[in-house]
Amino acid sequence: MIEIDEDARLDALYQLNLLDTSPNEAFDRVTRMAAQLFGLPIAAVSLTDRDRQWFKSRVGVEHTSIPREKAPCGAVAESNELLVVPDLLDDPCYRNSVLASQGVRFYAGAPLVTREGFGLGALCVLGTEPRTVTEHELAALNDLAQIVMSQIELQHAFGRIDPLSGLPNRTQFLDDVGDLERDHPGEDRIAVLLDLLRADELDQGMRVMGPSYIDEMVQDRARLIRAMLDDGQTAYHVAATQFAVLVRRGVDNAAFLAHLPALVERFKEQTRKQFVVTPVVGAAPFTLGAISAVDVLRCANGAVQDARTAGLSVSVYSASSDSVYKRSFALLNDFSYALRQEDQVRLVFQPRIELGSGRIIGAEALLRWRHPQMGDISPAEFIPIIEKTALAKQATAWVMDTALRQLGAWTRSGLDCRLSLNVSAANLEESDFVESAGHALQRHDIAPELVELEITESAFMANTRQTMDTLNGLRDQGFALAIDDFGTGYSSLAYLQRLPATVLKIDRSFIRDLSPKDPKTVALVRSMLTLSRDMGYRVVAEGVEQQEAADLLLAMGCEEAQGYLFSRPLEAWDFEELLCRSTGTKPLLTAVA
Fold this sequence. Notes:
The protein is α/β, with parallel strands linked by helices.
């Protein structure tokens, strides 16, 4: 019966996840108060493990534990009662104890008891001289012990322990890293982050098995991770399907990191029968005090994402990769503000040339951004970032409004010009995009046939119902639709039969090096042109940089082209001047973009 009670007591202690954790100021404050109250040099929050007394907090003692045998705190945990030993050398039970051998003569301890009645240990004070205590002192020591238990229960019940896994959570991880920074500044650690599964695996599991899928998986993995830990290590449940462990960095860090892939494989092997998951590990080496606890987790999570992107089981944090993501995030944050300023974003215009006559018949409006601190940001960098967010709608609205305002000015001044504008895949999923595009035409009094909307091949191929409804709606309003970057998609050409587009733009990757010396590329481009013309598309070649490429395209029947051979993208006034020279008219200086 006694052994069963001890097992239950130990289980209650272990569930609190206090043993072998870092010192904590909340406990240290109480320990210091106890020592000051009694005027004694030594005080401790002592937890009674199976064979040791481990000090969660201590004053006046260097070591973190002593054997449980003949330790007065062990007796307090077993009895749940106050214990006072005026002189250990006069007590037959403790005169041969470790404490007595270290010069301790006086002991007083108040029990730390859970709500269920399990004794965890004691808040104790110790002196090197025999001593008696007053009732007032004992009452105060007992009150302080209750404060310690309240702190333990608060940490466990409110935001410190994940109720599903039973492991310390993200908040506790951050606090523990902070405590380590205080006590061991300059020491090296490695944050190891285990990510259980990909987002699509999570979605599929939830859809097929319901919410209990996550609960069972997390509980199963938490048990397995606890079993894998070395002595003194703590696992943290830092996100829904992520666990973290802090590892002390040794001399042979390379050997440790090389061991991680085998650890992931072991994890897979032991869980494969129950759940289909693809776990990966991200490792972030860091120095205590050199980086915040939040950044430690962020870096480890960045390594996890790098592992998933690269198809690896393990990835180590890369500062260079992290700087790229930081820059991307900064650009994303700044772009919305830039759209509201007059001096950051603007449109430039790249002429479209009729190959047969050499005449400028239109232009593609292209977005440019000059960041006040970073300078000119390449559209190849910032456009893919914003296209994945709600900013895509704002950006397209800004481009359309600005471009149509400029086109209106040119048209009213007698210049004959068509403008093509880029539309993202996200825009095609907007339920009100057709309506907003129509309102833009009306607002600037523009005929829809003067506007061509360019949509990438991959966006066309999404072929969702909303996408097709949007495309058909734009066509019905009179917009010309162009397939941009043709040839870079991964779908059958059969989709060309279903799309309401009338213009096809061959991607620059096929045109840039087009030369008679490369018969395979020539044959490929000729096939594209023949197929497109036979299906009723007007063809534009992008990225023409060499005269021999232009000559080949003209000979193959390509109608239009654009590229650096003819002109780089121009500011609005420069394009206007070039357009006037091309048509033999006088520049009108009506640029407004």
